[in-house]
């Protein structure tokens, strides 16, 4: 709602009767007391300009900071982010991943794929249009956005796609920027004192509690030097993935820390350990220390606004010694996926290794499929490649080409001085040599200012041929030109309203189609069958060789059709089981998500 500037009329002081009415609409006692204690509450009319214009009433405290705004459709009194950070329990809270918060800050609504459905179970009583706040999944994450539910939570739990929350107001939008731009301190709920009249109730509850109930364990925080190492590792991981952030600078320091540093901490780092537990103690000091070491560039707002991250040093010498590790965000995704897979399979999840016994019983080989690229023999392509680190005749991964392109483009974009206005290094103008390569496909945007990600996609399409490599237990099986083959899940319409699911390409990962058909017959409580994959199927085209299929099926315990005819075997399962089979492949058979195509 406030992703574009809003028009505000002159403000007036709120009358006593109107102030009492405002207080009566607030449900939390602590917030009511704060409003009663305000010396002056002012009110102003405002108009938004995102889509359909809407008239608002905005309330400000005595410091001129927005605390609430009243909507006309739907009719809500909405707390500002400043108010919600002070009083986090003012509204029901929905938890999402940090990479989703970036989308919300650009005005997007919260979509269902951005939610972890088990977190919605305590909120099943909420209905459409009720207000909710949104924060990250870490315990100390502040509120980042507020909005209203697009559907009842009970319906969201059953749905697979669509909007979950209509976003109204976020950190760093134009309403937020009318305030101090500083994260306020949360107001703690008061603890009952010994003189409190509720002591008797507390004592009664204590008597009712069994004496042998163990006290909850107290999480021990690591020493400051260990926290320093965790945060440095997180910063290096962020730099290692820095190309994804190239177009997002300058970025508020609080967003950089919460959305990129905290999720990038090593998986073994305690969740509660953060910059406050480090030797720096504050985010500002931590950023200054790492700016001196040339990891990043920071710009402070002299008017008291929020500190900005202007750029990252993606060629820092420490990155050459850096070893990639599993981050907290990656571990959370794995844990959530394992839990969802166990729920779909109807089994109780094992806290340590869900469905480990099921996957171990298959004894699958270690399979690795790599998408590669080889430079075309066009003279313009070879002329450009001569100025890069790319080997003209070699096979290269997407990341290798991306790194080489990044170094090439860095030579075109001058680094801004500390006093100069930050340069948007995410947008570049290709030089004549690169523009000639990008224009091979007739693109008119080759000589214009475009983002690095667009340059990479255009370069891969115009200058390189797709290849793929298949390795089995560390041994090369084949290298072929063409699109990388995947396991394909496709819904097939049968007679009337009935559907079936077709599963092809299982041989790529050593999964026996006949055995899987028997397993699915029990797991899905429906009929299954197998038959040869049609010759025009993408997987059949990629593996149309008896030699390749013989290597892929050598360990199968049963006779496979590919041994007598050059064809893969397709499993047909009753009903639309695509979501179930996809989760089974990802979490029981450890098939990479990029190797499963759902049609």
UniProtKB/TrEMBL annotation:
List residues of the SUI1 domain: 487-589
Q: Which SUPFAM superfamilies match?
A: eIF1-like, PUA domain-like
Q: Which GO terms describe its molecular function?
A: translation initiation factor activity
Pfam families, sorted: Pre-PUA, PUA_elF2D, SUI1, WHD_eIF2D
One GO BP annotation here?
formation of translation preinitiation complex
Record's signal peptide: none
| InterPro entries, alphabetized | EIF2D, eIF2D_SUI1, Pre-PUA, PUA-like_sf, PUA_eIF2d-like, SUI1, SUI1_dom_sf, WH_eIF2D
**Region Disordered: start-end pairs:** 179-198
Spell out the protein name for this chain. SUI1 domain-containing protein
What's the source species for this entry? Puccinia coronata f. sp. avenae
